[in-house]
Amino acid sequence: MAPETPGTEPQALSNLLHENRRFAPPADLAAAANVTAEAYDEAAADRLGFWERAADRLTWAKRWDTTLEWNPPFAKWFVGGQLNIAYNCVDRHVEAGRGDKVAYHWEGEPEGDSRTLTYADLQREVNKTANALQELGVGKGDRVAIYMPMIPELPIAMLACARIGAVHSVVFGGFSASALKSRIDDADAKLVITADGGYRRGAPSALKPTVDEAVAECPQIEHVLVVRRTNQEISTYDRDVFWADIVERQSDQHAPEPHDAEDPLFILYTSGTTGKPKGILHTTGGYLTQTSWTHNAVFDLKPETDIYWCTADIGWVTGHSYIVYGPLANGATSVIYEGTPDTPHRGRFWEIVQKYKITILYTAPTAIRTFMKWGDDIPAKFDMSSLRILGSVGEPINPEAYVWYREHIGAGRTPVVDTWWQTETGAVMISPLPGVTSGKPGAAMRPLPGIVADVVDDQGQSVPNGGGGYLAIREPWPSMLRTIWGDDQRYIDTYWSRFPGMYFAGDGAKRDEDGDIWLLGRVDDVMLVSGHNISTTEVESALVSHPKVAEAAVVGATDPVTGQAIVSFVILRGSVEESADIAAELRNHVAKTLGPIAKPRQILVVPELPKTRSGKIMRRLLRDVAENRSVGDVTTLADSTVMNLISEKLPSAKSED
Ligand code: 6R9
C-alpha cells in the first residue's frame, strides 16, 4: 500500500496513543527501596561488573573465571564457576538459621485445603525426592518431563532435578497427549513426573490418563512417578511408581553436588505463533543471577516481611522464574494457589490476599481485565490493605486496566510494575523500579540496569523519541536462552537474523516523547491500514478506555479499499447492556482517541475471547472469523468452545458507514 501522504515513508509502527497520567513512587517505598537510581549509572558504566555483583548475591562452590564469553549469538556467563541451584534456593537459608521461615503457603482449590512448607520442610522434601530420582536411575544431564497440577510437589520435583543436575521440562498440565508426547520425544526424556489429577473449577481434573496415552508411544520413558492428589481412579502400569511409595522412604539428607554455571537447568517449550514448539534452553548460573536480582529489584522484596504471590501457572516461564527460582533464591515467603479465580466464587483471589496478607501481587492483564468485567464491587468486599506492590506480565497492559488495577486492587496507593520479558529472556528485561520510576499507565518504561534494549526501525537504527518500531536487545544478558534444544540453526534463524548482531524479540514497540518504552504486541499481529502500520495494542487500549468495555481484541482483515481494515471484538463490563448503537459509539470513541486512521470497520460484542492457557489473546483465530474463513488450529486454546460462541455472533457483524 502507498503511504497516505505522498512522499512520507510509513513508519515501522505508528505511535497514536498519548498518555499524560504519572504516578510517583510512594515516599516511604522510595526511601527504603532495595535498588535506587544509581543502579542505572553503575550498570551503564560497567555492565559486566554490575552483573558480577548480582552474581555475588548467590553462593558459589567455585567462583567463575570469566564473566562473559560472547561468540555471537552464543553466550556463556560466569564461565568456570560452579554452584548448586537447590542449595542456593533452599539449604543456604536453612544454614543461615531461617529454616522455620515459610517458603510456601499452598492453597488448594477446594476451600480449607492448604499446606505450609518452611525452608526446612522444603529441604527435607527436595532431598528425599533427589534421592528417589537417583534410585530411579536419573542422573546428571538426563531429561525429566514434569506434567503436574499446581501442588507443592511440582516445585519440589523441579528443585530435586536441579539438585542432581537433571534437566527438567515442565509441560503445562492442560496440554494434550500429543503435545506432551512431542515434548518428551524432542528432549528424549527418560522419566515423567505427574499426578492422578488436580482440582480445577471445583472438580478433580485428571492428568494421568493423558500421560498414559502419551507414554504408550514413548519407549524411552523408563518410569512414570505419580503423586496422589485427587485420589481419583486411574489405570496403573509396570512403569508407574507412586510418590508415596518411593519418595517417603528416602533419607532426607542429600549432598548438593556443584554444577557448572553453564550446565543446563531446564527446557521450556514455547509454541510461538506457528510450527513445531521450540525447546528454550536455560542454564544455571546466569539464569539464577538474573531471576534473583530482578525479583529483588522489581518487587522491592523484603524477605523478612513480604508475602509474595505470583498467580501464574508454574508450567509457564513466569512460574519457573517468579514462583520457584527467583523467590526461593531470595528466601521469600510465597503463596501458591492451585485453582481458578472464580472457584468457588469470583472473589477468591481477594480472599487469598486477605487471608495471607499478601504484600506483593504479580498477575496478568488478562486476569485484570476479567476482574474489571466482573465488577468493582467484588474486590471492594475484602481487606487488601496489606498490598504494597502490584505487578503485571504476559501482554501489554492497557492504560485503563493499569489504572483500574492500581485503584481497585491497590487502593490508589500501590505502584504498578509492568514487566516485559519472554520465555527466551528468562527474567524481566524492561520494567519500572517501584522505588525509583514515576509510573505511566501502559508503559513498561526503561530497560533494567544491565540490559541494553532498543526500539529500532526496519534497518535496525534506533528510532527517535516519539517513534515506533521493533524491540531489539543489543547486548547479551545473563538469563538469556542459550539455544533451542538440539537446533542451533533454528536459534540463529529465529532470533538473530532479522537484525544482524541484535536479538529480535518479535514484539513491536515505541519510544514515547519522554524516551520511555511501550510494548505494542507481536509484529505478526500489526495491521496495515492505508499504508499505516497500526498496532493491535493501541486500538485495544483505546477500546478499553471506554467506560463500557472490559476487554478488546482487534485484527486486520483484508479490505478492498484500505488493504486491511480493523475488526474489533469486545467484551462489555459486567453491568453494561448491549445497545443497538454500541458499535457506532465505540468506533467514534477510537477515532477520537487515536485519530480516524484507527477507526474500526466493525465491532462485534462477544462473551469471551480466544486465549492461550497463559492468557494471551489468539488473534490468529479472530482473523479467521473476521475474514470468514474456517477457524484454524485451536489446540492451544484454554477453552476450545470459545470460538463457537464468537462465530455465533458473526451474523450480527455488519460493516458500518
Ligand atoms: C513472560 C512471558 C512472551 C511474550 C512477549 C510479549 C508478551 C509479556 C509483556 C508482554 C507487553 C508486557 N509480553 N510481557 N507484552 N508487555 N509486560 O509472558 O513469556 O509466555 O514467552 O511470552 O508475551 O509479546 O514477547 P512468554
From TrEMBL:
The record's Gene Ontology biological-process terms are: acetyl-CoA biosynthetic process from acetate
Q: Which UniProt keywords apply?
A: Acetylation, ATP-binding, Ligase, Magnesium, Metal-binding, Nucleotide-binding
Per the record, residues carrying N6-acetyllysine are 616
What is an example of a GO molecular function annotated in this UniProt entry? Answer: metal ion binding
Give residue ranges for domain AMP-binding enzyme C-terminal. 538-616
Enzyme class at the top of the EC tree: ligase
Question: ATP-binding as a keyword?
Answer: yes
| The EC number(s) this enzyme carries | 6.2.1.1
Q: Which PANTHER family match?
A: ACETYL-COENZYME A SYNTHETASE (PTHR24095), ACETYL-COENZYME A SYNTHETASE 1 (PTHR24095:SF14)
Q: Which family does it belong to?
A: Belongs to the ATP-dependent AMP-binding enzyme family.
Q: What is this protein called?
A: Acetyl-coenzyme A synthetase
Provenance organism: Nonomuraea endophytica
Q: What is the lineage of its organism?
A: Bacteria, Bacillati, Actinomycetota, Actinomycetes, Streptosporangiales
Gene this chain is encoded by: acsA
